[in-house]
Design a protein that fits this description.
single chain; mainly beta; Lipoxygenase-1; 6-stranded antiparallel beta sheet; 5-stranded antiparallel beta sheet; 2 helices; 10% helix
C-alpha cells in the first residue's frame, strides 16, 4: 500500500511557551506539543486506503493572560499559533486548506461556538479540521 507524508510548520511568534497543540489523524493523536516560541516542523505518514480521513489541529491552554488589551479593549499583543507550509507528499496544500478547513471555536468561552474558514492561524482554543478522501491524489484532482 502507498503512504502519504504530511509535513507542516507550527509557528509561535509570541514569547508564550505554554500553548498546547494536538495534531490528530483520524482518531489517533500523532503530536501533543507545548509550542515553544519559533518554528517547529511536524511530519506524519498515513497509509492510503479507500476511505474518508480527517487531519485536525487542536489549540489548547490559551487563557486571558495571553491577550493584552489597551484601555479601549483593542488587542495590542496576542499569542497565536500559525500552521504554515503544509505539504502532502511535497504538494503544497495551503490554498486547499483555506478552501476546505473548518475552524470551530468559542472565542475561549466568551461567545457562542462558531464554524469559520481557517486562514492558517489559531488564536482561540478550538479545532481546525480538514476532511479528505483517499486515494488522496484522486481527491486532490477533484478538489483543486
Amino acid at each position: 500500500m502507498d503512504t502519504i507524508q504530511i509535513r507542516f510548520i507550527v509557528d509561535n511568534q509570541s514569547d508564550s511557551d505554554n500553548l498546547g497543540l494536538e495534531c490528530w489523524f483520524d482518531d489517533s493523536m500523532f503530536q501533543d506539543i507545548c509550542v515553544q516560541p519559533g518554528k517547529t516542523i511536524v511530519t506524519h505518514e498515513f497509509t492510503e486506503d479507500d476511505s474518508q480521513h480527517s487531519l485536525r489541529f487542536v489549540l489548547k491552554n490559551k487563557t486571558e493572560e495571553h491577550t493584552k488589551l489597551d484601555e479601549k479593549g483593542n488587542i495590542i499583543k496576542d499569542a497565536i499559533i500559525s500552521i504554515q507550509d503544509v505539504h502532502f507528499d511535497e504538494i503544497e496544500m495551503n490554498q486547499i486548506l483555506i478552501d476546505h478547513c473548518v475552524y470551530t471555536h468559542n472565542f475561549n468561552n466568551t461567545k457562542d461556538t462558531v464554524h469559520e474558514k481557517f486562514y492558517g492561524q489559531l488564536g482561540c482554543n478550538g479545532t481546525v479540521e480538514f476532511k479528505f478522501n483517499s486515494p488522496f491524489y484522486m481527491w486532490l484532482l477533484e478538489n483543486m
